[in-house]
Amino acid sequence: MTFIYMPFDLFYKPVDQDAEVWFGFMLHGWAAKATEPLHWLIYGAGFFGFLKMKRWMFPWAALYVVQVAIGMAVWPWLYTETDWWMGAIIGLPFAALAVMLWRAKSQFNGMVLGAIDVGQQDAK
Question: The pTM is what?
């Protein structure tokens, strides 16, 4: 998506057809076009951070996935005619992923202050 669709979206797609979603709210037109570089920056930073397991990925990876979980839960309430629990079910896997990323603190380069390595803790 980052390397194929986003350049098309940013450089080719007409402004009147553009749409971006943040926290489940859809932006259209120039508001969408203006936030596309932010999406690109976030995706690029996330790719680099996970590739090198940089310590700054904690807590940002988990917080970004929380934002995705909120967006997945809010979207059905705003743009479809579904019950509230359907949005909760859709957002639940992303919330679980956010918890797993939060608990993986020690995996991010082992340099996060106060990190407890679960493997070493279990060995004691």
Answer: 0.76
